[in-house]
Amino acid sequence: MSASLKARLQAQALAEGFSAMGICAPDATPDTAGRLADWLAAGHHGQMVWMADRAEWRGSAAALWPAARSVIMLAEVYTPEADPRDVLAMPDRAAVSVYAQGKDYHDLVKRRLKRLGRWLLDQAGEAAEIKVFVDTAPVMEKPLAQAAGLGWQGKHTNLLLRYMGNWFFLGAIFTTLDLPKDAAEVSHCGSCTACLTACPTGAFPAPYQLDARRCISYLTIEHKGPVELELRALMGNRIYGCDDCLAACPWNKFAAAARDIGYQPRVGAPELAELAALDDAAFRARFAGSPIKRIGRDRFVRNVLYAIGNSGLPALRGVAERLIADPDPTVADAAAWAVSRLGG
């Protein structure tokens, strides 16, 4: 019965819009706790204190929910239609990560997970429970996905699928049902280092290791306060996230197109001058329903001003000058830095 249920679950997952599914045991990643402890001890998590706060749960899915017997890992593609690095050659425009171009993926993926989970409970024919997770809980999705046979963690620490590249979101359904498990995937990176050499800030101290404190995605989204001067100059016009290591992966030649219209780009590559003029209300209205909204206007405009300072365009100096007296000290600092970079 369990094998038949798994086969039907696989078909239903694809029908719901997921691109791939695999199943592992909650205790299938015994080395995760040690790797996480080493990463935290090195300080590579930066200001992300929540990574340490619930390290016990992150290190062991079995500890997170002891009643769970299976972890169903699912991948959902959001592949971009064009190379996201093209906008890096447009100094007056803002580069926004592909994952944040459409609607908030947390909402889209979680709704799909809940529908699939309800279907599973209806089909199980026995008392069972589920819990669904999308990125916001203390769950290490990537090691679990590798243990479930979906793909492997590449040298950029992101998950790769041989037939999908690395443009996808991960979701998890924990269940008390004991479902048949899949064989873990192994690495197929070989000697390739394209993702490592593509990083603008040298955020990879070694293959399979990420120092978030140098990662542009971390700096633009998670880091509070001023960014170090050295790193500001390396951020270019990336104002929310960075896709360079993902875009550089050769496995993307097998990437499938995104199926959900919610991932269609809504943000695009807006003008830096326009974004710098946003007050709090305008920012919230502009990015309603977008993951960008969660960083707030001040951090967002800080990033925009770093991009203006890196633009090399004297015409944008006046835009930065108007923000030197901004009530937020970090925005004011970024504005003064941008003006100085543009010859003011």
Explain the overall architecture:
The chain is 38% helix and 10% strand. The longest helix has 20 residues, at 105-124. α1 runs antiparallel to α6 and α14 runs parallel beside α16. The chain has a domain at 1-82 and 102-204 and 243-266. With 344 residues, the chain is an alpha+beta fold. The mean pLDDT is 96. A four-stranded antiparallel β-sheet has the order 1-2-7-4, sandwiched between helices. Strands 3-8 form a two-stranded parallel sheet. It has a two-stranded antiparallel sheet with strand order 5-6. It is elongated. The protein starts with a helix and ends with a helix. A hairpin with a 5-residue loop joins β5 and β6 (159-160).
Q: What's the alpha carbon Rg, rounded to whole Å?
A: 21 Å
**Major sheet characteristics:** 4 strands, antiparallel
Cα distance, first to last residue?
72 Å
Which structural class should the secondary elements be placed in?
Answer: alpha+beta
Individual helix count? 16
Name the helix and strand elements from N-terminus to C-terminus, one letter apiece.
Answer: HEHHHHEEHEHEEEHHHEHHHHHH
Main sheet: strand order: 1-2-7-4
User: Overall pLDDT, averaged?
Assistant: 96
Strand content: 5-15%
Q: Shape, please?
A: elongated
> Residue ranges: pLDDT <50 for 5 or more in a row?
none
Oligomeric state, counting identical vs distinct chains:
single chain
The tally of strands reads 8
Share of helical residues: 25-40%
In short:
With 344 residues, the chain is an alpha+beta fold. The protein contains 16 helices and eight strands.
What is the strand and helix layout of this fold?
Blueprint: H1 2-16, E1 20-24, H2 32-41, H3 50-53, H4 55-59, H5 61-64, E2 70-77, E3 95-96, H6 105-124, E4 130-133, H7 141-147, E5 152-153, E6 159-160, E7 168-175, H8 194-198, H9 216-221, H10 229-232, E8 238-240, H11 244-247, H12 272-276, H13 280-286, H14 296-310, H15 317-321, H16 329-341
Helix pairs in contact: 1-6, 14-16
